[in-house]
């Protein structure tokens, strides 16, 4: 059975984007960027909701070809482009770059994917991750909390039907005051 990991950068008040989908507050240090790149390298399959997919696919397919691309950006872009991805959406009809589109029941498909043999999967996108949280499918949460308050926007956590008890498994400090916390779901 695969592990499902939900991890993103978020504000201290719990948002992954500020109003208007503004993520300008979320400029990772080189060290934090490398952490996320290493996480990507260790991931067998990435699951995306439509909005995050559109954000990622608007830059990373050619991120390594940008004139100001650092070696870390080049490495991340290649990893992202080459890895297997699944996008869950009923409003788009085409995906590229090693990606499969699922238009049906996301929870049923994530449950099926978790039951397969293979390495870890990550999930991104607040709506998609929220559905997986409510279904009890998330095994690990990775929060890179930035010292900024934005007062609203897209929350990292959505409303839940039941409590989710967690065990803290790691904390780490990054430049700029970003605190990484990693939790496993207590089952």
TrEMBL record:
GO molecular function, one term: 5-amino-6-(5-phosphoribosylamino)uracil reductase activity
Entry-linked SUPFAM superfamilies: Dihydrofolate reductase-like
Domain Bacterial bifunctional deaminase-reductase C-terminal, chain residue ranges per copy: 2-180
InterPro entries in the cross-refs: DHFR-like_dom_sf, RibDG_C, Riboflavin_Biosynth_HTPR
Alphabetical list of Pfam families matching this protein: RibD_C (PF01872)
Gene3D superfamilies reported for this sequence: Dihydrofolate Reductase, subunit A
GO BP annotations listed: riboflavin biosynthetic process
Annotated signal peptide: none
Protein known as: Dihydrofolate reductase
Species lineage: Bacteria, Bacillati, Actinomycetota, Actinomycetes, Kitasatosporales
């Amino acid at each position: 059975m695969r592990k499902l990991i939900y991890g993103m950068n978020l504000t201290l008040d719990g948002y992954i984007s500020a109003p208007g989908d503004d993520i300008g507050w979320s400029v990772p240090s080189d060290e934090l960027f490398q952490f996320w790149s290493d996480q990507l390298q260790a991931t067998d399959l990435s699951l995306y909701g439509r909005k995050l997919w559109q954000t990622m696919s608007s830059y990373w397919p050619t991120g390594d070809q940008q004139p100001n691309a650092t070696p870390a950006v080049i490495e991340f872009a290649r990893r992202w482009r080459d890895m297997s991805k699944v996008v869950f959406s009923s409003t788009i009809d085409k995906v590229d770059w090693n990606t499969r589109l699922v238009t049906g029941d996301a929870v049923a498909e994530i449950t099926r994917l978790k039951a397969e043999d293979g390495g870890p999967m990550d999930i991104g996108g607040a709506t998609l991750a929220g559905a997986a949280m409510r279904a009890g499918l998330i095994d690990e949460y990775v929060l890179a909390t930035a010292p900024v308050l934005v007062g609203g926007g897209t929350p990292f956590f959505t409303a839940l039907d039941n409590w989710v008890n967690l065990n803290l498994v790691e904390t780490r400090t990054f430049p700029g005051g970003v605190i990484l916390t990693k939790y496993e779901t207590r089952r």
